[in-house]
Design goal:
Blueprint: E1 11-17, H1 21-31, E2 39-46, H2 52-59, E3 64-68, H3 73-84, E4 89-94, E5 97-99, H4 103-111, E6 117-126, E7 133-135, E8 138-140, E9 146-148, E10 162-163, E11 171-175, H5 176-182, H6 194-204, E12 208-219, H7 229-246, H8 249-270, H9 276-291
Parallel strand pairs: 1-2, 1-4, 2-3, 6-12
Antiparallel strand pairs: 4-11, 5-12, 6-7, 6-11, 8-9, 10-12
Helix pairs in contact: 1-2, 7-8, 7-9, 8-9
C-alpha cells in the first residue's frame, strides 16, 4: 500500500464497548500492536453490565477510558469518543473486531493523497473465515435494502481502491475536516443506518468515501442477523428515518413504500418461529417509522 506522509498525523482510535467480554480484550490486544507512531486509544464504555470494563482497566491500566452511565447507542456512544479527541483523524472501531498492525498506515496512505476523500475503510473480513470479505464498502439499493459490497468473496475481486456509497461503521476512518463541516453521527438513529446517514451527509458536502483494498480488520459477525427486540426495532424504524432525512421525490416514495411492502414481510419471514418479543419489536419499529417526522 502507499506509504504514509512523513508528518504522521495523529489518529484517535475510538472503541465503543458494550458488554464486550473477551472480544474487546482481543480487540485491544491487536490495537496496541499497531505499527504507527502517532495514535491514541479511547475506550468509551456504554454502560456495560458485564465485567468487561473492569477487565480492561486491569489489563490496560493506562488506557484512556470514558464511562457512560447508560447505553447511549452506537451513534451517541461514538460521539462521546469523538468529542474526547483532538486528532486530525478518527478511526471508529467495533469492540468485536481484530486489526492488523498495518491498518493505520494503509488507510492514511490512501486517504492523504486526495483532499476530497473524507472517509475511508478497509476490507473487513470474516473473523471465522479470514480470507473472505464481509464488507468492502456498502450501498443502499433503490428499494432501501442496505448491503455490503464483496460479501463472501475473496480479495482478488476487490483489490483496487474505489469510491463507495458508504463505509461500514465497524471500521471507519474520518477526517477531522469532515466532522467540523458535517457534524457528528446522528444520535437519533441509536443503532443501524447511522453509518449510511453519515456518509450520505459527507458526500452531500462534497467529500468522497473510499474503500481501501487492505484486509486489515476481521469482524466477529453474529450469525443471528436479528436476535433481540431492540435490534428488530431499529432495523425496521431507521430506514424510514434515513429516507425522511436524506431522500426526496420519487426515490423517497419508492424507498419508504418498499419498507412496507417488501422489507417488513421479508423480516417477518426471517423471524418466523423466533421469540414473539422480537417480532413485536419489529412491528413497533414499523409503526414508529411510519409516524416519524423531522
Amino acid at each position: 500500500m502507499q506509504s504514509v506522509n512523513i508528518a504522521n498525523p495523529s489518529v484517535s482510535i475510538v472503541i465503543l464497548n458494550y458488554n464486550g467480554g473477551e472480544d474487546v480484550l482481543e480487540c485491544l490486544q491487536s490495537v496496541t500492536q499497531i505499527d504507527y507512531p502517532a495514535y491514541e486509544v479511547i475506550i468509551v464504555d456504554n454502560g456495560s453490565k458485564d465485567e468487561s470494563l473492569q477487565n480492561i482497566k486491569k489489563r490496560y491500566p493506562s488506557i484512556r477510558i470514558v464511562e457512560n452511565k447508560r447505553n447511549l447507542g452506537f451513534s451517541e456512544g461514538n460521539n462521546v469518543g469523538i468529542r474526547e479527541s483532538a486528532a486530525p483523524y478518527i478511526l471508529l472501531l467495533n469492540d468485536d473486531t481484530v486489526v492488523s498492525k498495518g491498518i493505520l498506515k494503509d488507510l492514511l496512505g490512501a486517504i492523504q493523497g486526495d483532499q476530497n476523500i473524507g472517509i475511508a475503510g478497509p476490507a473487513v473480513m470474516y473473523y471465522k473465515n479470514p480470507d473472505r470479505i464481509w464488507s468492502a464498502g456498502a450501498k443502499i439499493g433503490l428499494l432501501g435494502y442496505a448491503s455490503h459490497l464483496g460479501k463472501g468473496q475473496k480479495m482478488d475481486s476487490y483489490n483496487l481502491p474505489s469510491r463507495v456509497p458508504y463505509i461500514c461503521g465497524c471500521a471507519i476512518l474520518i477526517k477531522r475536516d469532515v466532522i467540523n463541516r458535517v457534524g457528528l453521527l446522528d444520535a437519533e438513529y441509536f443503532a443501524y443506518f447511522e453509518d449510511a446517514d453519515y456518509c450520505f451527509r459527507a458526500r452531500k458536502a462534497g467529500y468522497r468515501c473510499l474503500y481501501v483494498p487492505s484486509p486489515t480488520v476481521w469482524h466477529k459477525v453474529n450469525a443471528e442477523w436479528i436476535n433481540s427486540p431492540v435490534q428488530a426495532y431499529y432495523n425496521m424504524r431507521n430506514p424510514f428515518m434515513f429516507a425522511r432525512k436524506n431522500l426526496k421525490g420519487l426515490r423517497k416514495i419508492i424507498f419508504i413504500t418498499s419498507q412496507i411492502v417488501l422489507m417488513f414481510p421479508y423480516y417477518s419471514i426471517k423471524l418466523f418461529g423466533k421469540d414473539s418479543k422480537i417480532f413485536r419489536g419489529l412491528v413497533r419499529g414499523l409503526k414508529d417509522g411510519l409516524n416519524y417526522r423531522l
